[in-house]
Design goal:
The protein is an alpha/beta fold. The protein has one domain. 47% of the residues lie in helices and 11% in strands. Helix 7 links the parallel strand 3 and strand 4.
Length: 188
């Protein structure tokens, strides 16, 4: 019952939000980062799950802004469903949806925030960037390659592209994708 209530809360927040963003991130560290003997291992590499959660919280501090974090929000929206194939399908539907995903982001003038941790973007993140490009939605890279453990709000505040997104939200701008300064978005 708690998952359903939280899922309903997320739905309300996204329906009422002025600007919605969508986070593209790994679900967990790449296997190369879990094996300290792997040639590409980075000691204490940045955790994508916790970093995405921190980024979501950081951006949602601004009134009217919501970020869909598939690692967390899907768990509540799917209400604890455990069928693996069905769940993966629903996660993809949510990613593209008009309620939380690319459809909602496009309608509110938001962006896709691509969290990059060692060893670089996953194949799924590359596919998500392609889906965003197909919809004309900008992708903002959140480069966390050099951070140890996880990235926090003070790291995001130092990232020009992320802090500019907050400034746009703070100013109450009726942001549209074309209005995001070219220095904060990547071309896919």
């Amino acid at each position: 019952e708690g998952a359903r209530m939280q899922g309903d809360k997320i739905r309300r927040e996204f329906a009422e939000a002025r600007v919605c963003h969508l986070i593209s991130t790994r679900f967990q560290k790449d296997p190369s980062q879990l094996d300290r003997h792997h040639p590409n291992h980075v000691k204490l590499s940045c955790d994508p799950f916790r970093t995405a959660e921190n980024l979501q919280r950081y951006l949602q501090e601004e009134d009217g802004v919501r970020c869909f974090n598939p690692n967390i929000d899907n768990a509540f929206i799917l209400e604890g469903h455990t069928d693996v194939e069905g769940t993966r399908g629903m996660m993809l539907i949510n990613w593209r949806s008009a309620e939380f995903g690319l459809g909602r982001v496009g309608a509110t003038g938001g962006v896709v925030l691509q969290v990059i941790v060692p060893p670089g973007p996953s194949k799924m993140q590359l596919a998500e960037a392609d889906m965003a490009a197909e919809k004309g939605i900008e992708v903002v890279t959140v480069d966390c390659m050099a951070y140890r453990s996880e990235a926090f709000d003070y790291h995001f505040a130092q990232m020009t592209n992320v802090s500019r997104l907050r400034q746009i939200a703070t100013a109450g701008a009726e942001a549209q994708p074309a209005e995001y300064p070219p220095d904060i978005v990547q071309k896919v």
